[in-house]
Write a structure and sequence with these properties.
There is one protein chain. Strands 3-2-4-1-5 form a five-stranded parallel beta sheet, with helices on one face. The chain folds into two domains: 5-120, Tetrapyrrole methylase, N-terminal domain (Cobalt-precorrin-4 Transmethylase, domain 1), CATH 3.40.1010; 125-229, Tetrapyrrole methylase, C-terminal domain (Methyltransferase, Cobalt-precorrin-4 Transmethylase, Domain 2). The radius of gyration is 18 Å and the shape is elongated. The chain has helices spanning 20-29, 42-51, 70-82, 102-111, 124-132, 149-160, 175-183, 210-217; strands spanning 5-7, 35-39, 62-64, 86-90, 116-118, 139-144, 165-170, 191-196, 204-209, 225-229. The two termini are 32 Å apart. Helices cover 35% and strands 21% of the residues. A hairpin with a 7-residue loop joins β8 (191-196) and β9. The chain is α/β, with parallel strands linked by helices and 232 residues long.
Length: 232
């Protein structure tokens, strides 16, 4: 895990073990000098860390990151990442940065062009939202749009009237056609996030304006993807 920020999804139930790849990544890196560990609450983070059999010595590297500390910490963390430090982000339970304060840190990483990744998570929709860094207290899952371009354009105009973050999926060979229709839609001024090959070694994340990403995404080829469109 060489990203500046790595999200580490954790079990919702206390009795469940940490996912195997996440456990291996933490075990391998948690005592390295350049690594920091961000937890939502010290007590819960410590209890679960030890329950998972991870090194006790790493607990002193814990930094409390939650709704009370994020405003101060985000700029400090970004500064540290720019100097080469890397961080793991864990919430008390579930997926970090999904409807929790980690969203602002992920967004700041994208703005600073710092790499963000995640250990495996089985839901591509929630994972794409978390990795996008877009505000998503309310979001709309539009699923697969019509294959026909004219019908798809009508669907996009309907979606443009929804004041929420939007999530789209489609087959790999329709990414370019979808991007072309987005360019001429009422959504064209919204920010865009595209995640390809989530949970794979070939995973790539792209975030920016639709105009700025056009040439980059034109080279992506046929890959599984999830698209997130910002609320504004």
């Amino acid at each position: 895990m060489n990203a500046s920020l790595t999200l580490v999804p954790t079990p919702i139930a206390d009795e469940l073990p940490l996912e195997t790849i996440a456990h291996a990544a933490l075990l391998q890196d948690c005592l390295k000098e350049e690594i920091g560990i961000l937890v939502e609450e010290h007590k819960i983070g410590r209890q679960r860390w030890l329950k998972w059999g991870l090194p006790r010595e790493a607990i002193e590297r814990f930094t409390l990151f939650n709704e009370h500390t994020q405003e101060t910490l985000v700029p400090e963390l970004i500064k540290s990442m720019k100097k080469g430090k890397r961080f793991f982000l864990l919430s008390d339970a579930g997926l970090p940065a999904f409807c929790d304060p980690g969203q602002k840190l992920v967004s700041a990483c994208h703005d600073a062009r710092l790499a963000v990744s995640s250990t495996p998570f089985p839901n591509s929709i929630a994972l794409a939202l978390a990795l996008s860094g877009f505000s998503h207290q309310e979001f709309h899952f539009a699923g697969f749009l019509p294959a026909n371009s004219e019908e798809r354009k009508v669907a996009l105009e309907r979606l443009a009237r929804i004041p929420q973050t939007l999530i789209l999926m489609d087959t790999p060979y329709r990414l370019q056609a979808l991007l072309e229709d987005l360019k001429s839609s009422s959504l064209k001024k919204r920010a865009l996030f595209v995640a390809t090959d989530l949970n794979q070694t070939s995973e790539k994340l792209y975030r920016g304006s639709m105009q700025d990403l056009q040439s980059t995404l034109a080279k992506v080829g046929k890959k599984e993807f999830v698209m997130v469109i910002s609320v504004s």
